[in-house]
Design brief:
This protein has about 300 residues and is of the alpha+beta class. The protein folds into two domains: about 90 residues, Phosphorylase Kinase, domain 1; about 180 residues, Aminoglycoside 3'-phosphotransferase, Chain: A, domain 2, CATH 3.90.1200. The strands form three sheets. A five-stranded antiparallel sheet has the order 1-2-3-5-4, sandwiched between helices. A hairpin with a 2-residue loop joins strand 7 and strand 8. It starts with 9 loop residues before the first helix and ends in a 10-residue tail after the last helix.
């Protein structure tokens, strides 16, 4: 968590006070959260007049407003779940909703990773998967999170992907078809409740317990999806290779995961969230070799 102090607008101050009204303690200090958080939502650790603290997330545009409302639905239904921060309040003025949660800023956030932390995340994901989802949660089988079709997009125009330097054109030409065929067989369907945005900046691990934040992308599907899409970032942050954590990973899902990060990383920067492509490239660098190993293909040599 960064030390930067910013001054909220009058509207933000009033809306945060409304979100926290059940605590009966007004905000007296504001510290910007700068760790993680690749969307333009405004986030603070708020000091309260009774000495307590709270984490607050305030929408900055229509997209972040939609995400905060979606996240609020999950907290409303699953309030008190051991894998979620404590829920403190919510206020929506129709344009810039505010979500207030337990302050976890003084807890342990990986990296570094050790086996105990990895096992804690796996145990949390098993608990999440077994949790009945809120009504209306999208289905991964309907490609609710738009994770499918990455290799097809690369086949149509490989230039943005090749410019990333993850492999050369000869490797891609020789192995694109088996990668694409594998991804086409990916099994998204299932009845597991999925967080679907598992990364270290969304994961607090302390006392053998993992708590996940940012619940705006939930869906229902194959429980392996959450694990498969987490493991490339785990390896990139000094953790073990994915197959050491999930030796029975479904190869079609691994190919789909690699395609997602490889294709997304080659897209133009996201307005107001310039680091998203950087993070996707970091994940692509470990996901693509994993897909090659999972399919018995030669591991590509980076060109840069």
């Amino acid at each position: 968590m960064g030390p930067e102090t910013i001054v909220p607008t009058g509207r933000e101050t009033a809306n945060v006070e409304r979100a926290l009204k059940k605590l009966r303690a007004k905000p007296v200090s504001w510290r910007a959260v700068t760790r993680g958080g690749y969307t333009p939502a405004r986030r603070w650790i708020v000091g309260l007049e009774d000495g307590g603290t709270a984490f607050v997330k305030v929408a900055s545009d229509e997209l972040t407003a939609s995400w905060i409302r979606d996240e609020h639905v999950v907290y409303s239904v699953l309030r008190g779940a051991p894998f979620m921060p404590g829920y403190l309040g919510f206020f929506d003025d129709g344009e810039r909703p505010v979500l207030a949660l337990e302050d976890l800023s003084q807890r342990a956030w990986p990296p570094p990773w050790d086996r105990a932390a990895i096992d804690a995340v796996l145990e949390t994901l098993r608990a999440v998967s077994a949790t009945p989802p809120p009504d209306g949660t999208p289905l991964a089988a309907d490609d609710a999170r738009e994770v499918d079709g990455g290799w097809e997009a690369i086949a149509r125009d490989p230039s943005p992907f090749l410019a990333l330097g993850l492999c050369d054109g000869a490797w891609l030409s020789a192995h694109l078809e088996p990668l694409r065929a594998a991804a086409a067989a990916a099994r998204f369907g299932g009845d597991g409740f999925l967080h679907f945005d598992v990364r270290s900046d969304n994961t607090c691990v302390e006392d053998s317990r993992a708590v996940l934040v940012d619940w705006n992308l939930t869906c229902v599907g194959n429980p392996q999806l959450d694990i498969v899409f987490w493991l490339p970032s785990l390896e990139a942050e000094g953790g073990p290779r994915p197959e050491e954590v999930l030796p029975d990973a479904e190869a079609p899902l691994v190919s789909t995961c690699a395609a997602f990060f490889c294709e997304r990383a080659g897209r133009p920067p996201v307005p107001n969230a310039p680091r998203v492509r950087e993070i996707q490239l970091i994940q692509a660098r470990t996901a693509l070799p994993w897909a090659a190993r999972a399919l018995g293909l030669p591991v590509p040599e980076p060109t840069r």
